[in-house]
Amino acid sequence: MTWNDAVTFASVWEHSLATRGDAPFLVFEAPDGTVTDWSYAAFDELVERFACELVRHGVEPGSSVHLALTNSPTFVAVWLAATRLGAWIVPSDPMGRAPELADHIERTDPTIGFCARERVGEYRPAAGNMPFHMIDESDAAFAWLTHDRVDGWPTPRLTDRAAVMFTSGTTGRPKGVEITQANYAFAGKVMADAAQLTAADRHLVVLPLFHANAQYYSFASAIWAGASVALMHTFSASGFLPAAARHRATCASLFAAPMRMILARGDETAGVGLRHCWFAPNRSMISSRVPRTLHTFA
User: Is residue 174 in some structural domain?
Assistant: First the structure.
């Protein structure tokens, strides 16, 4: 895809779907080691099923959807479904306590929320009157969803809100940062260009999806390039290199702290084919190809 004019993130997904439908999109490794994979077309069927569920609960263009989920196919599918519907997500730390979750929910007024079944004790009092789904984060079958089809997708505008992500609150009350459709698309384009991503690349994602890093630099860039993503349910210093080899990953994004943890182990793992592994916040990258102007993130 080229960038002659600004585009929406929804249109980026639709372009890759049209041109890379049969190509790999997502590989998910669950906590028990079970691996499930989807092509772009197969995952879009799941996106459409989630979109129908969102619409059934009243989600429409401009609505917000709250997510308190760890790395999971549900997070990705709801994110893309909301994007295609012209709605927006509010991702919160899934391990957050009820007051923090309640603050995010109160300030963004979501139409529906999603939380993990095992953490509903914190989520239920935070949700108030908001309806929500309790999710098995390892679920890759989604037997509970209908197979309804969307009767015509809306056409989001460039400046339509696609997400609100909250800062950590280290200097005061957490601030809600707005991300537009064009923001997501541009982040994906810039990172894909900087890392010289091709459709043959595969991102290894171990950072939490409720942070901007995994969304911007891994998923958005992969979708822009028509590449694929191997999504791990969580980070493991001992498991990072074996996962990279197992899933034939070529790219990854980390913070400095987990990278130090991986390097400190001194493990040698056969079959690792990573050609890029960028990280922050010390403005260094394990790649001479990526401009220094791209080292920081929200």
Answer: yes
